[in-house]
Amino acid sequence: MRSAGSISVKSSWRLGGMLAIVVIMVVLTAGWPLVNASISDRQRLAAGGTLAIGPSRKDSARITVGDSWSLRKSQSDPQQDYELYYGGVDLSVRYVTLIGRLRPGKLWSGLGHIVRISSSSARLGVPSPIENSQGLRGITGTFTRSGRAGLATVFPGPGGTFAIEMTTLARPGARAADRAAAQLVVRSIMFPEVKR
User: Fold this and answer.
1) Do 5 and 60 reside in the same domain of the chain?
2) Full-model pTM
3) What is the domain range of residue 6?
4) What angle (nearest 5°) sits at the alpha carbon of residue 87, between those of residues 144 and 125?
5) Pair (35, 85) in one structural domain
6) Which among 39, 67, 136, 177 counts the fewest CB atoms within 10 Å?
């Protein structure tokens, strides 16, 4: 004859075992989609590949990436923006429609307003001129947000109806090589409508 104590030990063991199985099932059911989403959201880009941004060929630009760059697909839209990362650096590329022709100083202050909308801690430094390989001039300067530092750059499109804004931010521990790779992408900007 079994004692009441042995029955209660077996019952509690069964209950504990069933509870463990339920917990594992919940973790797998809820956690796996999160893991899968984070993996499937990342798209590795081919070295030397180009990304076009803009609504049409006339109103667009292209950037070229080097080896080991990745794209965050859920935060990227080829007509409006790209979120890229490499090593310890994040690079945002944005297409902005302009109303009227704006001088570089106005483009810079406009970029300052845009980055402060995303974070009240965002700040731009004093801009200086930058030139792409087509001879088009833009402006660039320091960019800080939430304790991270990088650069912001704006290139107006050739028709003056749009601009491409790019910001880089280094994560803690980012190497100088990561920052340099981001600047190569920024300087690679080309406008298809500009003939060399």
Assistant:
1) no
2) 0.76
3) 1-40
4) 15
5) no
6) 39
